[in-house]
């Protein structure tokens, strides 16, 4: 214990809590991760953002010792995450669909707590995640939101130093989501390291300081929340025009999609695009502007949408 | 470590007993086989009935463990709870030992009716001392079959595990001499049996409850199988990464 305290005092800010070096993971012929480099320093709150199937969960499973990389190196707390000794300060969430249905909430909490030398007292954990009234309920009978709360609570049961939260608030109502965010923030404020995955920018914005954007198994961006928001903010300007738009050389145009006689212009700045259209005397009617989903933005970013 | 083993055993037992039909099911077959095959054919002969009961108990031990672990584990691995348990700071040992304790408990449940039927409906006899000795022997001979089941469960996907367990169990039972009285099987089986895990196990049981002579070769072979399946199970657990797409 004294050793660790000394270590923390010596340089917590520079200590690398989790590291991936040139990590590739393939499942048969499918490449889930392609030469990923990532460092998470102690005390950071990092969001892994990407569409479904981007490789976020695979990356997390490598960090939490569930899988081995096909190539490259993964480190957790300075060692191989496949070695249980390096997972003593790790907290992770199960998928909420995966809780053992016949066991009670209290029993599942006890089971997880038993794996740690100095776990949070049961009552405190239940209280912090609003599970007090559910302690005798079998997990199979919980609602989706209750399961999610239990799943996240389990990540904190062992007083971890680093937690990996996989889509922690998907499907929660606003109040429950805010409570959970609060729990994550207070853990982080006490010096804990957090890596959370989400395909909602909103959730990452609410919690993370640093965002790592992952798509198709690669790191597309690793930056501050503000910088990444600028990068992935894509709007769709839709209009009907009697002439093709290719001849106008519009500034800020990332891609054009066409459905019937509707043109959809994808651009980071919708206001500027509309000004461009007017300035260049492009004939159009039925103008419509709306933000794109994260999925659409990623398609543009990864170049899948270029026409 | 010990407490973690007990924790795993407790949770596996709770899960098992919350679905009572599974427990009833594993107790049903050995009892039914006793009533169908042993009681009518060897029930009146004290020596024959004692041998047959010992064989049936060995059969039940192999059967329960091979299926419970082979299929149970590969089913568990397909559940999303399993990858989570693997993120906890525990290696293979507490999970393995926990499973073994649970398996032993399940065996008591499935063997109790067999013993009861033997005592009530056959002439099988056993001194109290031999009965006491038979309990740890049952536990000991279960270990290689538990490890065998674990190897299958961790190495193979669900459907393959079921097939392999089904393919293995009958040759093991017949080849080990569980379905015939001692000396009653065809010659090549008599020669082969002591070297099979089932043969080694049933010989140890016979020695414990009858005046069948102790067979050191068969017991040594059984110990060898135990070490082999233990190594295989640990290897299969280490290379296992759960479902391919999580």
TrEMBL record, chain A:
The keyword Iron belongs to this UniProt entry's keyword annotation: no
Start and end residues of each ABC transporter domain: 18-241
GO biological process, one term: response to antibiotic
Gene3D superfamilies: P-loop containing nucleotide triphosphate hydrolases (3.40.50.300)
Record-linked PROSITE patterns: ABC_TRANSPORTER_1, ABC_TRANSPORTER_2
Keyword Transport on entry: yes
Membrane topology type: Peripheral membrane protein
Pfam family name, one: ABC_tran
Name assigned to this protein: ABC-2 type transport system ATP-binding protein
GO cellular component, one term: plasma membrane
Cell location: Cell membrane
Main location per the UniProt record: membrane
GO molecular function terms listed in the Swiss-Prot or TrEMBL record: ATP binding; ATP hydrolysis activity
Key words, A-Z: Antibiotic resistance, ATP-binding, Nucleotide-binding, Transport
Transmembrane segments: none
Automatic annotation (TrEMBL), chain B:
Parts of the chain that traverse the membrane: 21-42, 48-67, 96-121, 127-148, 160-179, 218-236
InterPro entries: Nod_factor_ABC_transporter
This protein's name: ABC-2 type transport system permease protein
Keyword Acetylation found: no
Organism phylogeny: Bacteria, Bacillati, Actinomycetota, Actinomycetes, Micromonosporales
Keywords of this entry: Membrane, Transmembrane, Transmembrane helix
